[in-house]
From TrEMBL:
It comes from Mediterraneibacter gnavus. One of its GO terms (molecular function) is DNA binding. Pfam families: HTH_3, Peptidase_S24. PROSITE patterns: HTH_CROC1. Transmembrane segments: none annotated. This is XRE family transcriptional regulator. Residues 8-62 form the HTH cro/C1-type domain.
Length: 209
C-alpha cells in the first residue's frame, strides 16, 4: 500500500491542505488520514471511493495501478476514436450485434488501443450518488474483473446491470452504491447455473447535466 500513501500525500499537497483540513473535508478523523499517509492502515473500498471522488481521480490511480485519472466525469470530450453508446445490453447478444445505438462518445486513441469499448446509458438510481440515471459509462469489454471494480453484468438472461463487484472464495456479490438496494450474492454454483456473466468493466463516467 506504499504507493497509496505517497499518492494521497501528493494529492493533498497539490490542493494545499493539511491533514486536519483534509479530514474535515472527507469527514474522516485526522489520525486516520495520518495512518493512511504513514502506510499503517489501508482504506476500505467505500473510503477509497470517497477519497477518489474528492480528488476527482480513479481508485486505480489512488492505488498506483495506473497513471491515468480515467474514472472521472468528462463533459469536455477530446478528439479520438468514436464508440457506440447503447441504450441497453441484452444477455447473450454480442455487443457488435446490438442495434439499439442511441449515441456516440469519443475515447482517446491511446485508450482504444487497450481493448474493445462501448458506452452504456444508465437506467435507474441504484448506483447513486456516484452514477446517476442517464449518465453514460464507458465500458471495456472483458469477462472478468477485480474485486472492487464497477462492472456491467448480466444475470439470469436479463438485461445488463451496472454494479460493484466483490469477490469471495465461495461466490461473488454485486453491490449497488445506493443503500436502498440490497447486495446480490451468487454462489459459485449459481454463477454457472443462472448464469451470472461479467461483460465489461466501467473505466470512465461521463455525467450528463
Amino acid at each position: 500500500m506504499g504507493k497509496f500513501q505517497n499518492i494521497l500525500k501528493s494529492l493533498r499537497a497539490t490542493k494545499g491542505l493539511t491533514q486536519d483540513e483534509l479530514s474535515k473535508q472527507l469527514n474522516i478523523s485526522r489520525s486516520t488520514i495520518g495512518m493512511y499517509e504513514k502506510g499503517a492502515r489501508e482504506p476500505d473500498f467505500e473510503t477509497l471511493e470517497l477519497i477518489a471522488d474528492y480528488f476527482n481521480v480513479d481508485t486505480d490511480y489512488l492505488l498506483g495501478r495506473t497513471t491515468k485519472t480515467t474514472y472521472i466525469p468528462s463533459p469536455a470530450l477530446r478528439k479520438g476514436v468514436s464508440i457506440n453508446v447503447l441504450g441497453r445490453v441484452a444477455a447473450g447478444i454480442p455487443i457488435d450485434a446490438i442495434e439499439e445505438v442511441i449515441d456516440t462518445e469519443e475515447i482517446t486513441e491511446e485508450m482504444a488501443k487497450t481493448g474493445e469499448f462501448f458506452g452504456l446509458k444508465i437506467k435507474g438510481n441504484s448506483m447513486e450518488p456516484r452514477i446517476y440515471e442517464n449518465d453514460v459509462v464507458i465500458v471495456r469489454q472483458q469477462n472478468d474483473a477485480e474485486s472492487g471494480d464497477v462492472v456491467i453484468a448480466t444475470i439470469n438472461g436479463d438485461e445488463a446491470t451496472c454494479k460493484r463487484l466483490r469477490k469471495y472464495r465461495d461466490g461473488i456479490e454485486l453491490i449497488s452504491n445506493n443503500p436502498s438496494y440490497e447486495p446480490m450474492f451468487f454462489s459459485n454454483e449459481e454463477i454457472l447455473s443462472k448464469p451470472v456473466r461479467i461483460i465489461g468493466k466501467v473505466v470512465e463516467l461521463r455525467g450528463k447535466f
